[in-house]
Amino acid sequence: MPLHKTFCIVLFFIASFGAKASFVLLPMDETSQQNHLKAYGITYWALNKSYKVSWLLNYRGGSFLLPDAPEIRKECQIRGVSMELLSDAQANTILDEISSPSQNMETVVLEKSPKIAVYTPKGKKPWDDAVTLVLTYAEIPFTPIYDEEVLSDALLLYDWLHLHHEDFTGQYGKFYGAYRNAPWYIEQKTEAEALAAKLGYAKVSEEKLAVAKKINAFVIGGGFMFAMCSATDSFDIALSADGVDICEPMFDGDASTPSYQSKIDYSKTLAFKDFVLERNPIVYEFSDIDMTQKRMTQIPPDKDYFTLMDFSAKWDPVPSMLCQNHTQLIKGFMGQTTAFARELIKSNILVMGENTINEEARYIHGTKGKGMFTFYGGHDPEDYQHRVGDAPTVLDLHPNSPGYRLILNNVLFPAAKKKKLKT
Known about the structure:
This protein is α+β, with helices and mostly antiparallel strands.
């Protein structure tokens, strides 16, 4: 063979070897990713297979960098997740760009797949839980647990806990006014009373308080808790009313504590302060924490958006992770607890998403003890005004939902090696 042909063949093989992919990039920007939600599922799946994953904060919408492997490529193809193959040189160029002090970007290594529990009642309820829906759609495994498991210290087995649409005050979701004669309400009340009695409590409110205190201890001990809709404010209200009866007779069979508002202990709450409880059992509201009624005349549905805050990815990676998205403007959505009054949020709590029209917070985060928690207002990010009995959201129609992405940011968050929050 002539020398020049041999030399060309050698160069061809050298070039081919150099172009061989070493990494798989899951782009998370608006135009490149065909299924943002399932991309989180791929990332979780890879962590579960002991692959090391890097979360590229603020790089193309918070992309994920995985090692190249045939099974990862195959899984992306099966789940319909967009991917890009990168050589070592291409990956290093991206990482160098991210590490530059001039760029508000950061690389966060995800270490392991977190063990996930979803606090949800057993049996069918006349509403759906957005977190359960998106975990199922993204194919991220989770374990449903409820009061019995929580009170028997099963939370020790998990890293991350979601609180289903729930009322921790023992007032059955304040559905009394509209649904007290509905079969599902009567059944729910009967089941809750039976469960409380089985667990050794005289009242549902006492049993739910015990559950809330166990969850609070889970956070203090280093757990990650995420709550949406009524699980946010009702959780804090229950903690603040420890030792005080705030339930009217139709809920627990006896009178409430006289002047109970003056006996509320705000020092026991995670996020809220100085709130005033709603005493009227007919009113579908727990307290003035929620902005649902106050915002009705101020924010029409077509203008209902909230903005994600900007954080320094290098100095504040925690809120940066939780706010990763392909847009900073998120379509609003209602719930029993839609948004939080800014003046009733404790000063040590980070507001990560807000609507400034009426000074409401939609997405907040805080720490307690060794753990962290996130509260997200509203019920379903892709169902503006989800009502009791409505059909569940079909996420195949919303694979790029920015509102659902915020939920999945919280799911992956415990997988990251934490840095001290500096904001």
